[in-house]
Amino acid sequence: MTFLVGSGTLWLKVGDGQYDPVVTMYHDQGQVAIKLLGFDQGASVLAGLPLRVTTLAHGTAFDIPGKAITNFLPTKNAFTMCPNMASNRGATDGVATNVSELEERTVS
Questions:
Q1: Do 81 and 92 touch, CB atoms closer than 8 A?
Q2: Would you say residue 1 lies in a domain?
Q3: pTM for the full predicted model
Q4: Cα 98 from chain centroid (whole Å)
């Protein structure tokens, strides 16, 4: 476990795979970086509440309704993380990293 890594290099190390989970003090410290690193798969966790809360990295997607181009992977990942946390499993157990991986699980 590493503590107090400067934000200027932290997200580069996350992108290189040196760190997996990252804890930030505020939503905006982590959410912008998650969008840059994994816009199409990211989900974040809000901790410290009596209930589990996850949010999607991609935002509201106001520009794509009715176009049949929605990427549901961040939603699936957020819904997977909540029950994992509630049952004290690893939050990212079963989280997919790309749509084809998710489709393989669904078909098999």
A1: yes
A2: no
A3: 0.56
A4: 12
